[in-house]
Amino acid sequence: MSEELVSGNHAAALAATLAARANRGGRGFGSGVYPITPQTECVELLCRLPIEKGHVVRVESEHSAMAVCMGFSFAGARTFTASSSNGLAYMAENVFSAGLYRLPIVMMAVNRTLGPPWNIWAEHGDTLMLRDAGWIQLYCEDNQEVADTILAAYRLAEDRRILLPALVCQDAFFLSHAMARTSLPEQAAVDAFLPPLDLPHRLLPDVPRTIGGLDWPRENEVHRRELHEALARVEEVYGEVQAAFAKSFGRALADPIVPYRLDDAEIVLVSMGTTAATVRAAVDEARSRGIRAGALRVRLFRPFPERRLAAALAGRKIGVLDRDLCPGLGGILWAELRGVPGISPAQGYVAGLGGGDIRPEHVAGILDDLRARSKATEPVFVEVG
Amino acid sequence: MSAEPLLSGLPHSALDRAEPILRAGNTNCGGCGMSVGLQLLRHAIAGRPVQIVIPASCAIVAPGAFPFSAYGAPVIASTFASAAAMATGLAHAARLNGEATRVICWAGDGGTYDIGMATLSAAAERDEDLLYVCYDNEIYGNTGGQRSSATPRFAATTTTPEGKPVDKKDIIAILAAHRVPYAATLSLAHPEDAVRKFAFALAETGFRFLHLLSPCPTGWKSESADSVELVRLAVRSGLFPVLEVFGGRRTVVNVEPDFSAEALERYLALQGRFRKAPPDTGVLRAAVLARWEELRRKARDPA
After folding, report:
1. Nearest to residue A179, comparing CAs of A3, A357, A359, A360?
2. Mean pLDDT of A301-318
3. For B33-300, which CATH class?
């Protein structure tokens, strides 16, 4: 175990490199990389670190970066790439392919506002756009969680019951460029946590199998159902991964949803990513004024942890703070939460678009608004300036 | 050894692969140049393990639907623009694991000249250890015959019903400009030359590119039985030069055209796609001769 002062980008690259080396006894490691602000420092470091039995290919686009990863993965190698914003939009076709091909690729995404107009700061719309791609999606709150979640993502993705790619998300600049003390495990511990990948559908020499050709409806509907069922199994496997993680690294891996002062809370504000830290400060402040407020952070967005959310939120007044927008609908987390049975209709708040700094006073205003409401209405836009 | 009849009089040789790449039961049209190309490829592979990446095209539809496949080798379907990138991952993984696997991209002109161009160019620039084969039927055949940037001037397609007003790209010149180790054109009417090039390209390392003119009776409005003859006429007339470029510099012409008006006129007359806007054969011949002037210059004076 070493303690390093690293950015979220470097935490991701270091964790990916540990996972990469852990497959040296297997089919090795490969990556296709393409730079985009604010992800660049991650791929730059990946290109500098020595990886035994590994190649990093510097390609000409995000679309090709994911295609190179798919090629490596089909050959049984462990893979990693990283992107952000418009890069993810450009990559999208192959992001879906990786999900449909059931390839356990791990990608780190730095959440950044989609352009035009150009804006390089934090927003969650880029990865939420990929919510239907058949990928596991996890959102992180700090650099430690970025490193931990990448290691855990390999374990989840490569599990025979799952075999799906995983997207590990961190907020632009708040994490990607902020240095924080981060514990990184020794290689031996990672080797034990991540045994060599054994992909059941990897290409074998001269086994004449055609992968991804024509699929009539009768077969396709089964393939899609199997994909859904595999993704749905993530929640049950997650608990096992947490236990293995604690055993290997002596540290807890955060839960799929993370409650804060929820026990007696009457109002709850739900959020994702770094926003949750600000929400916690605002909850403490509201509590000091005698308001029974609580918070809930959603870490696992796909599969959507519906039962856990229902259990945590039943009987409370709910607000959702989205740093993203589906124009014509509202916040995306809010829209998803509306489908959870057994909870009251949530009030949506959209704040921090284009990377605006959501400060505790903004959240205090949201909590006051939520408390005063008798019913949920259309989403409220909170301009943080 | 399968009971496949000898192909164009080609004798079986030690370079034959026991299992065909494209087996019986595929759904290609009669006279499909791509089918012939895959049979020729089989005669050059010998016992090498191969992996084939095929982007969206007739070639990925032809083997039939899951769980069946007429391909006798491991094949992955890539997205349209991704063949050379996906193959890059396979080729690197083979090298990492000390495997002799030869990775082949088998793409149409749409996946090569158009949507796959950036990916192809990048893989060529990186000198990836790939054999990239473009079977060029000069249209988007799988989607019903729309124009691509490989469609020749004057050809009518469903999206250029009055005939295409501009020339096709010079794909070999584009690849040669990348200074790839090997770029060559293949004629299905010259199978010995074609098999020799497949074998050479499979044995070479680095980025290798093969371009074959692939008649499409459906899109060209031609008779299935005329496909090989059409290629022969394209070669004879000088429309389709059969050549090799080594390292992007040394050009070798493999088959001398006769540049006859008869070959050119017959090439055009056997196809319905040139009937809508019949080209002035005098102008077309002049353009062919001008292009050959340039080729001869390149063959004489390596760049």
Report:
1. A3
2. 97
3. alpha beta
